[in-house]
Write the structure tokens for this entry.
Amino acid sequence: MQISTYPFLLFIVLTLAACTPSKPVAEPSQPLQSFTFAQVDSLRSMEPRPLAIFLHAEWCKYCKNMEYTTLRNEKVVQLLNDKFYFIPFDGEYREEILFKDHKFAFQPNGRRSGTHELARALGTIDGEMIYPTLVILSPADEIVFQYGAYLGARQMRSILAKAAK
């Protein structure tokens, strides 16, 4: 019995192509400035701006993809740095946070898992918490935008440009 080498070679080529890392995104000329909820009041006392909150989780591959692509896009970084206070927030953060005169804490929902109350308060859309989620709060801390899914750079720029007006 003779086995054709063509399917085997095709398999090897496709496997190697799938395992080859994609082209890395170039670092923006200016770094993305990020802040914490604890810094918001003092920042806003100097200059009122909306908050752009990126809710993510360490295990979320779509979140990581956004971090390495969308949030490194030159125009996205410029918009976030110039018009917003950007807060990346791990939805599974375990420490208490004081925000808007309210204490938010981590709520376990299993032996090693849970969600932070602040992530739930900001990121629940139609009764569901999804990662990644982009939340934009007005300078008065009202939710003006929520989107629970991956956002590409073009979509993110459009959303940020509208929210900055």
In short: Residues 9-23 have pLDDT under 50 and may be disordered. The domain at 30-163 is CATH 3.40.30.10 (Glutaredoxin). The beta strands are 51-56, 85-90, 97-99, 102-104, 106-108, 114-116, 124-125, 128-129, 133-137, 143-148. The chain is about 35% helix and 25% strand.
